[in-house]
């Protein structure tokens, strides 16, 4: 995605995602933020109040500090990250649900996961169908629907806090045409919100509290019929002498 983000369409998408992340990240607090993506993701993290930020990439970033790592095998301790950002990662993974599972592992209880993805039911999805034999990104990726992402997150132990689509313009590499089609953004949010080319999801790692069970004390049940007195130690002694 590094080279594609340098194209007019890639820059337009980064700007749109940066604006949305700029509205989400300021409300997420903690000590450690991890972004999995490429160096272009670093600019979108500037809005976060978390000072310690780690960028993880498959290849060494050229312009910003970062570490090399695989998204499904992060070199991080369990329950150590407050906020994790996955920016167009799942589309290019063979086992995207394992990436979510790894995010669940490294997040602290109540930690937040923020992810973006391409919507297959949009102009972008149509373009991918027309370019399905292409090996260029992002059309070579597997576009996953928002409903599928919801299901995976819920199944693996997340609670969805917000999810919405954006970028309703068709994916054109023409800056002037993209500017003229800007009216589709307002119309799309109002009239066809589920057809945006990209979605952004914020989810919280659920923690199921343990509810202590109070012991139920019951009186000892008698084996004698009702109305009969239980024998005492003295009566049992006398009965033994007479026998």
Automatic annotation (TrEMBL):
Keywords: Methyltransferase, Transferase. Residues 55-115 form the Methyltransferase type domain. One of its GO terms (molecular function) is S-adenosylmethionine-dependent methyltransferase activity. One of its GO terms (biological process) is methylation. This is Methyltransferase family protein. It comes from Thioalbus denitrificans.
